Amino acid sequence: MTTPMRRKKGWMNLKIDKIVEETWDTKTFFFTDADDGDRPFDYIAGQYLTFRYDGVSDKPVVRSYTMSSSPCEEGFSACTIKRVEKGLISNWMCDSLKVGDILKARGPIGKFAYFPETCHDHIVMVGAGSGVTPFISMMREYANTLGQEGSPKKMTLLVAYRSKNDLICWDTLTEIKDIPGIEIITTLTREDGSNEGFWQGRPDPEMLDKAVGNDYSNKTFFTCGPESMMDMVVNHTTSKGVEKEHVQTESFF
Ligand SMILES: Cc1cc2nc3c(=O)[nH]c(=O)nc-3n(C[C@H](O)[C@H](O)[C@H](O)COP(=O)(O)OP(=O)(O)OC[C@H]3O[C@@H](n4cnc5c(N)ncnc54)[C@H](O)[C@@H]3O)c2cc1C
User: Fold this and answer.
1) What is the location of CATH 2.40.30.10 in the chain?
2) Quick check: 239 pLDDT over 60?
């Protein structure tokens, strides 16, 4: 029998415990239950919380943020938030939120989630910018269940960033890249980093072919990032015979 997921009803109070500066425009916020200092809910890697901001504008505003932490990390969860130009909440979070502050959130929810039992043995994730957040969570979860019956054998992440100044969650990627079965390919779209092992340019069909060695069999694809990139992944993988239920997308808009 599986243990039921722990969920709090309604709006939870989450206390910011730690803030990590990822890049010039992105921060990771770690939080716990304001009431008891624990993690108030269970979740599946890839799911998100909906936050409510009461004092930022004249009316309450809500925004969703995916957990970049993984369910296997006990006692806290974290979201990684990238500033959007002229964006109300992303800039307020990065500029004004402090350790000790309390945020209201509900959830977690989301179907863009890591269910190893419904995935093929090789999971391929294609992300860009802040769209890397669900994949950080999924890779940590994969690492935690490595070798267990029913867990996938391989995970490939193809992630695009503008430049070396934009490498969101780079410490985590560096830490997990040597875990057996994990392959991380980073491509830069606006800077040449080819002599340091980076690929060049935006993910396109040729890059995807190269990332999977032109073999689309027995793979489950996840993609999160700009619509044009996700459309490319869906169109290209399905044209190569990947079943629609094995190509999952998450839009941050
Ligand atoms: C399911 C889900 C999960 C998400 N997870 C994350 C996450 O883990 N990390 C993260 O940083 N963001 C995430 N987002 C995006 C986040 O919810 C906000 O949309 C984003 O932070 C912008 O909010 P804002 O208030 O700063 O901008 P707004 O004031 O809402 O918008 C300002 C301007 O930016 C444009 N805009 C809005 N959203 C985006 C965007 N995502 N990218 C580019 N331009 C945009 C708008 O069209 C508008 O012109 C997620 C969104 C969804 C739906």
Assistant:
1) 12-109
2) yes
Q: Is the CB of 47 under 6 A from ligand 1?
A: no
- Residue 12, helix vs strand vs coil: strand
* Residue 11 clears pLDDT 80, i.e. is over it: yes
- For 59, 107, 234, the CA distances from 54, given in Å and listed in that order, are 7, 17, 38
For the stretch 173-184, pLDDT in tens is 999 999 999 999
Measured by CA distance, the residue closest to atom 52 of ligand 1 is 252
Q: Report residue 76 as tokens.
A: 């806290």
Q: Name the fold adopted by 116-250.
A: Rossmann fold (3.40.50)
Residues of the chain with CATH 3.40.50.80: 116-250
In Å, the largest CA–CA distance within the chain is: 53
Q: Indicate the CATH number for domain 12-109.
A: 2.40.30.10
Beta strand 77-82 with 26-33: parallel, antiparallel or unpaired? antiparallel
**Nearest residue (CA) to ligand 1, atom 10:** 81
Question: 3-state class of 98 per DSSP?
Answer: coil
Q: What is the pTM of this model?
A: 0.95
* CA pair distance 43, 103, nearest whole angstrom: 18
Q: What Rg, from alpha-carbon coordinates, does the chain have?
A: 18
- Specify whether the backbone of 71 is left (phi greater than 0), alpha (psi in -120 to 50) or beta: alpha
Can you give the pLDDT at residue 3? Answer: 64
